[in-house]
Design brief:
Elements (H helix, E strand, L loop, with lengths): L11 E5 L4 H12 L3 E6 L13 E4 L5 H11 L3 E4 L6 H6 L1 H21 L4 E7 L22 H19 L4 E7 L1 E3 L17 H10 L5 E4 L11 E2 L1 E3 H16 L5 E5 L5 E2 H12 L5 E4 L8 E2 L4 H7 L8 H12 L2 H5 L1
Parallel strand pairs: 1-2, 1-4, 2-3, 4-5, 5-6, 6-11, 7-10, 8-13, 9-14
Antiparallel strand pairs: 9-12
Helix pairs in contact: 1-7, 2-4, 4-5, 6-8, 6-10, 8-10
The structure holds uridine-5'-diphosphate.
The site of uridine-5'-diphosphate has 15 residues, from helix 6 and strand 8.
């Protein structure tokens, strides 16, 4: 039986940050699965056109009155919270922005949600909470020991969630710790559209397009086989599907859990660059330079738990496919939407 037939058409999901990169792919997945979606986004980095399903409320999370009205009127069965700042080097330069957007705004959202009687919460967390973990692949039980303000701001929100659940068993959350999310919708309708992208794959593709003169490799002296950092790159549609499974789990009265979202293997910066050159067919210029502050050397997910408990089965575990979808998107979205 198709998935959507099992879902009540009345099941309403509120998505903060639904106009952003990951949020918009989850809104798409929710819409396709038959949920009623409402996006709440201040459009600081998101775009109206990326909300493919449901209505969009343009407002800030610090606007408690609008937030409260929205929750009271919409009565969501669950809230998915994507609205956040996510750039590691920026977090090192402007930590207060990160604690405000990622910790304080989450705290306010949770307070408002509890006051309105909503109890199911899905949180966008990050592998950055682990910092330089002792064991790789890293499991959810590894200590949280972030090495940058971005990771710390998310860790604090996770701690708040854990304490809330301990204090009130009716409040349940799933925290999904994303590894390096990349790629775009297979149908090329949505993708990453930040004004300034610092992420490796996007940066490499923009360099291939000629938007940058060269791609810099930040650090070649890490304790990895080729000296560059290793990350677990995961396609955004696999991340979106993990949210649908997490939601079903919560709506099925599942208790609070934390899950890693990654494929369980990684690629070095040099390997990603080689794949980007292969996919684009362009031998763009690369320059080796010093380390970027706040970068752990290796981040790879132990994804045993999400596979077992949510039956998550990744479909796009293929670096070239990830880069191909991002490349197609990179070459079309400006023409489509600017
Ligand atoms: N990186 C790089 N050059 C760039 C952008 C990123 O060498 O122009 C490296 C970065 O130092 C890190 C890896 O690529 O080791 C992934 O960085 P990204 O910003 O994509 O994601 P993060 O892991 O910081 O969330």
């Amino acid at each position: 039986m198709p998935e959507f037939e099992t879902i009540s058409s009345k099941m309403k999901i509120l998505v903060t940050g639904g106009a952003g990169y990951i949020g918009s792919h989850v809104v798409k997945a929710l819409g396709e699965a038959g949920y009623e979606v409402l996006t709440y986004d201040n459009l600081s980095t998101g775009n109206k056109w990326s909300v493919l399903y449901g209505e969009l409320i343009v407002a800030d999370l610090s606007d408690e009155e609008t937030l409260k009205k929205t929750i009271v009127k919409f009565k969501p069965a669950a809230i998915m919270h994507f609205a956040a700042s996510i750039v590691v080097p920026e977090s090192v330069r402007t930590p207060l922005k990160y604690y405000q957007n990622n910790t304080v705004n989450t705290l306010n959202l949770l307070g408002t949600m509890m006051a309105c009687g909503a109890r199911n919460f899905i949180f966008s967390s990050t592998a950055a909470v682990y910092g330089n973990a002792e064991k790789m692949p890293v499991g959810e039980n590894a200590p949280m020991s972030p090495v940058n303000p971005y990771g710390s701001s998310k860790m604090m929100a996770e701690k708040i969630l854990r304490d809330m659940h301990l204090a009130d068993n009716d409040f349940n959350y799933v925290s999904l710790r994303y590894f390096n999310v990349a790629g775009a919708d297979g149908g090329c309708r949505i993708g990453q559209a930040y004004k300034e992208s610092t992420h490796l794959i996007t940066r490499a593709l923009k360099t291939a397009k000629g938007e940058f003169e060269k791609l810099q490799i930040f650090g070649t002296d890490y304790p990895t086989p080729d000296g560059t950092c290793i990350r677990d790159y995961i396609h955004v549609d696999d991340i979106a599907n993990a949210h649908i499974l997490a939601l079903k789990y919560l709506l099925d009265k599942g208790k609070s859990e934390v899950f890693n979202c990654g494929y369980g293997h990684g690629y070095s910066v040099r390997e990603v660059i080689a794949a980007a050159k292969k996919v684009t067919g362009i031998d763009f210029k690369v320059e080796e330079t010093g380390r970027r502050e706040g970068d752990p050397s290796i981040l790879i997910a132990d994804n045993t738990k999400i596979k077992q408990k949510l039956n998550w089965q990744p479909k796009y575990d293929d670096l070239e496919y990830i880069i191909k979808t991002a490349w197609k998107w990179e070459n079309s979205y400006r023409e489509k939407y600017s």
